[in-house]
Amino acid sequence: MATAVKVDGYGFERPEDFDFETYEEFMSRYLSVLVRRAKKWEQLFGSSPLEDHLKRSSKVKRYTRKGIPGDKRALVWMTMSGALARMQANPGVYQRLLEAPTHDDPVIDAIRTDIHRTFPENVFFVDAPEGQRVPLFNVLVAFARRRPDVGYCQGLNFVAGMLLLVVKDEERSFWLLDAFVGGVVPTGYYTPAMTGLRTDTRVLAELVRARWPDVDATMRREGATFDLVATKWFVCAYVDVLPVETLLRIWDSLFYEGAKVVFRVAVTMVARQRARVAAARGLADVVSAFRVAIDDPANTFAHDFMADVFRVPGSFPMATIDKLREQCERAVLEEDR
Amino acid sequence: MSYAYLFKYIIIGDTGVGKSCLLLQFTDKRFQPVHDLTIGVEFGARMITIDGKQIKLQIWDTAGQESFRSITRSYYRGAAGALLVYDITRRDTFTHLTTWLEDARQHSNSNMVIMLIGNKTDLESRRDVKKEEGEAFAREHGLIFMETSAKTAANVEEAFINTAKEIYEKIQEGVFDINNEANGIKIGPQHSPSSPHAPSGSLGQQAGGGCC
C-alpha cells in the first residue's frame, strides 16, 4: 500500500506491526457487505421510526446477526438493551449523579488511576477538552454512584470507553452502561466477589468439556482454568481483546440476544485453537495457546467470524446455560465459604 | 535453550503501582509510560544465570484491584517467589501491604521467597513513603527489600535476580522439595531423566516470549 493509515475509524492507533495486508483483504470484501446490509436495513425499516420495528422477531435477530449499520448502531443498541427506556424514565438523573459532591473517595481515586490507562493508543482518549477522558471519568463516577453495590470494577472502563467511541454522547453512554451491567450481562460480573463472572468461566469450561474432552483434559492436567484465560474476555466483553470491527458485530448481537453470545464467541475461539490447546504442555503453554486465539489474524474477518460464532458452537439452548449456571454457582459459593 | 531450573514467580500489589511495567522492563528492557491496565493474569518469561546455571523465570503478573483477588489467588500456590510491589508516591499502597502479605502467606507454600519492592524511585520529589519504612516493614516480616524504578530500570534486574538467588540458596540448603512442582520449581528437561511432560518447545525460549 502506498499510504498506510495509522489510525483506524474509531481512533485507535495501529501498532507498528499492524497487518495491513490482512486488513485490506478484509475491508475489500467487508465494504460490500456493509453497503448491502445498509440497504437491507433501509428496506426493512423505511422511513418510520426505528424503535417501532425493534420488536423481537426472527427477522430482526437475523438482521442483527449480520451487523447493524454504523449510523443506526447507537440507536439500535439503546433501544434493544432498554437503555433508552431507562433514560426516558429517569430525566435529569445523570446530571444529578454527577453533581453529588466528590469527597476523598477511594472509588473515585481508583477511577482516576485508570483514566489514562484506558485506550492509551486511541487519539480520542486524550486530556484535551474535546477528548474522551473527561466523559469517561464522568460516566464511571455517575455509574459508581448509581450502583454502589458495584462501585467501580476494572473492565468497566473499557466497556464505557468503547460505548463513548460508538455512541459519542456521554449521557447515552451512561445509560447503555447501566443497561449493560444491569441486564445485558448476568449479575455478579462486576461486584466485589465476582460470583457471576466466576460462575460463567466455569460454565464455559463445561461447554468446552461437552464438545472437546481433549481440551478439557489438557487444561485439567495443567491446572489451567478459564478464570485464568477468559476473565478479560468476559469482564471486557471482548473490548481490548478482539479487533474493533469484530467487537462491534459481537455487541450488535449481545445487545439483542443477551449474554449467551459471550459464550458463543468464547467457544468459537476455543474451537479455532483446539489442537494447539490440546497439545499444550505446561500451564504457560496453555495460556500461550489462548494468546494465539486472541491474536489470530482470522479474527479480523468480522463477517466470517460472526458466521462461525452462530455455527461452530452448535445449538445453544438457554435452558442448558441456566442449568449449568446453577450448578457452577453452587461450586463458586462453596469455594468462598 | 535448555535450563537447569524453572522458577515460578507472581507479582502482586495494589493497582497502578507498576507491576506490569516492572515485568516489561525485566523481560523486554523497555518502559511503556502508558500501559494498559492488567485484567486477570498475564505472564512473561526470561532466562537468567545463577552460579553458572541457566534458570528460567516464569513470571505471572496479576490484576491489582481487590475483586480480582478471588481469581488471581489460585495462582499463588504454585509460586516459588513473589514480588510484592507498592508505589513510594502513594502511601495507601504501602498501608495495604499487610493485607497482601496475609493473603499471599495464606494461599502460597510456606517457603515462598517474598521480595518487597518500593517502585517509582524516579518520582523522588513526590515520595510519600521513606525508604527506611520499607526496610523496617521488610525486616519485621522477614522479606527481602529493594526500591526500584521500572522507568529508569534502576534495580529491576537486581530485584528479579536476587529473588532467584534466594530461592536457589534454599534449594541448595534442601529447604525446597524440588520434586514437588507445587513449590513453583521445576527441574529442566535434560536434568531429570524421567520427565515426559517437560516443556520442549514453543514457550519462553526467548526473553519476553509471552508478555502482555
UniProtKB/TrEMBL annotation, chain A:
UniProt keyword annotation of Membrane present: no
Domain of life, per lineage: Eukaryota
Keyword tags: GTPase activation
Database matches in SMART domains: TBC (SM00164)
InterPro entries listed in its UniProt record: Rab-GAP-TBC_dom, Rab-GAP_TBC_sf, Rab_GAP_TBC_domain
Domain Rab-GAP TBC: 67-258
PANTHER family, A to Z: GROWTH HORMONE-REGULATED TBC PROTEIN 1, RAB GTPASE-ACTIVATING PROTEIN 1-LIKE
Function field: May act as a GTPase-activating protein for Rab family protein(s).
Protein's recorded name: Growth hormone-regulated TBC protein 1-A-like
Organism: Priapulus caudatus
UniProtKB/TrEMBL annotation, chain B:
InterPro entries named among the record's database cross-references: P-loop_NTPase (IPR027417), Rab_GTPases_membrane_traffic (IPR050209), Small_GTP-bd (IPR005225), Small_GTPase (IPR001806)
Region annotation (Disordered) ranges: 184-212
Short name of any one Pfam family annotated for the protein: Ras
Gene3D superfamilies to which the protein is assigned, alphabetical: P-loop containing nucleotide triphosphate hydrolases (3.40.50.300)
Biased composition (Low complexity): 188-202
Listed PROSITE patterns: RAB, RAS, RHO
Family the UniProt entry places it in: Belongs to the small GTPase superfamily. Rab family.
Protein name: Ras-related protein Rab-2A
Native species: Priapulus caudatus
Gene this protein is translated from: LOC106809237
